[in-house]
Amino acid sequence: MNLVFLGPPGAGKGTQAKKLAEEKGYIHISTGDLLREAVRKGTPLGKKAREYMERGELVPDDLMVALIEEVFPEGGGVILDGFPRTIPQARALDEMLDKKGAVLDLAVLFDLPDEVVVERLSGRRSCPNCGAVYHMKYNPPKEDEMCDRCGVKLIQREDDREEVIRERLRVYRTRTAPLVDYYRDKGILITLDASGQIEEVYSRLKRAIDEKGD
Ligand code: AP5
Predict the structure, then answer these.
(1) CATH classification of the domain holding 56
(2) Digit-coded pLDDT (tens) for 64-93
(3) Which residue, by CA, sits nearest to atom 48 of ligand 1?
């Protein structure tokens, strides 16, 4: 199956995508992670994307579509986390899959109120080395602010400052939320209650996917 994970920033898309990919063998493609890596390495894409990301705005569609075309694997079996984020991106994805003879099976909407989003994002820390994601209250590292896997000091993302979080939420509502209707009209949308503990959300997610997959 090919899946899209949709939803506001901080709803837990990345956390759940990593778990599902690890257990079920999906390939997890996070456009946010790919862009952050490009920024870190100073590639041409990273140089173009950096300012948009720091302001909480979307990177232009043409750059994003080119990135997805480059990384999407031939065999599919993918979780797209953070792509598409606009209607033109969704149309470009449909065209790309069509050419490959593949389909999008499900779009999972992570549903979470804004106040919980802000709490999740302000407590988030990530490992600059392996990309592992923690939450200082809900999913803390074993040792204070150090990655469990690499022992490296955890960092707070530049775009997890409060004013940038608000801009990301605004951008989500205006540019990305229209995808909910886009996928509902295609009959492939599932809405997932993304509140509660990580394991609780994960069980709900697997149940929802299994039901649709049957
Ligand atoms: P991106 O990295 O995709 O950011 P996002 O969509 O804003 O998503 P987040 O990574 O913030 O949240 P998430 O839902 O993955 O939550 P997480 O699992 O980490 O994009 C960043 C930027 O890149 C964009 O702003 C844009 O500029 C650019 N970009 C990317 N894709 C683009 C595209 N297609 N087009 C244009 N521009 C693009 O969880 C959050 C926190 O909560 C963590 O601390 C986690 O530990 C914790 N947590 C998770 N689940 C739970 C739970 N159940 N209970 C308690 N805590 C939890």
Answers:
(1) 3.40.50.300
(2) 999 999 999 988 899 999 999 999 999 999
(3) 12
